[in-house]
Design a protein that fits this description.
The protein is built from 5 helices and 15 strands. The protein has helices at residues 5-25, 32-45, 62-69, 75-78, 196-201; strands spanning 52-57, 88-94, 107-113, 116-122, 128-131, 140-143, 150-156, 159-166, 173-183, 186-193, 206-212, 215-222, 229-234, 238-248, 258-265.
């Protein structure tokens, strides 16, 4: 494949998918005026963008929602690891649909615009002690891998995620080791396989194993249809050595682009 053609095809695929969704959204009952009114309501009441997340439900209306509220959504928000850092979540939905990010939360503000409902949910944002994703350059890499680790914006499960990407050799393991990590009570992270084209051509899974002070705490497998897989391990507060080992499972697991993000939390 010509250099640069892969990312271009990925962008084209995403554009075609968005166009299909927008065509489907034309048949939704919400009018352009109702969408504009809902978006204006969010802008007026949202407050500080950095502490407030915007989501859409069901997920297939996400592209049309971004058409009206994209100016309120940063890349960091769209490519987030999860929603735990945000103090409030604004949800725009068709009827009573719920986004995964608002499940279990209670709304404290709502408005209706035809079939569209705008609701605000509040939560206590997590207290983070260390962000492995932001500090990945301080880690030491080792093992059998293709190229070098990198931090990039990747497509995982047809969603954007900013994550650390490693490509272990087929049937081999590569790792990132962090030293002097200030731990809280848990490490929370997500892992998945990047790039729709390699997921189509290579069906073998990837695997992540988390070690703290050389003790394995959790192992999670990411398959081609798994999407963004959550993992969590309880930890003892204090300074520790943390290692993420990533494996391409199987002798034919070529170009297995394993992508992950993780945080130490209180």
């Amino acid at each position: 494949m010509c250099k640069g053609l892969g990312p271009a095809l990925g962008i084209l695929l995403a554009a075609l998918y968005s166009q299909l969704v927008l065509c489907r959204a034309e048949h939704a009952r919400a009018s352009e005026g109702q969408w504009r009114a809902a978006a204006d309501f969010v802008r007026e009441h949202r407050g500080e963008p950095g502490t407030s997340l915007i989501v859409f439900a069901p997920s297939w209306i996400d592209p049309i929602g971004r058409e009206y509220l994209g100016d309120q959504m940063t890349i960091d928000m769209a490519a987030r690891m999860d929603s735990a850092r945000f103090a409030s979540i604004w949800q725009v939905s068709l009827g009573d649909e719920r986004a995964p990010e608002t499940k279990g939360l209670s709304k404290d503000e709502s408005a209706h615009f035809g079939p569209l409902q705008v609701r605000r949910y509040r939560q206590s944002p997590v207290a983070m002690t260390y962000d492995f994703t932001e500090t990945w350059r301080s880690s030491v890499s080792s093992g059998d891998m293709q190229g070098r680790p990198s931090l990039s914006l990747e497509e995982v499960g047809f969603e954007p995620h900013r994550c650390i990407k490693l490509v272990p050799q087929p049937g081999k393991t590569a790792s990132l080791r962090f030293t002097d990590v200030p731990l809280g009570t848990r490490i929370v992270g997500y892992v998945g396989l990047a790039d729709v084209f390699t997921r189509r051509d290579v069906r073998d899974p990837g695997e992540l194993e988390l070690f703290v002070n050389d003790t394995s705490l959790v192992k999670v497998r990411a398959g081609v249809d798994s999407g963004w897989v959550r993992f969590e391990a309880a930890t003892t507060p204090g300074v520790a050595k943390v290692e993420f080992q990533l494996s391409a499972i199987g002798a034919n697991a070529r170009d297995r682009r394993i992508c992950f993000a993780a945080e130490a939390r209180q």
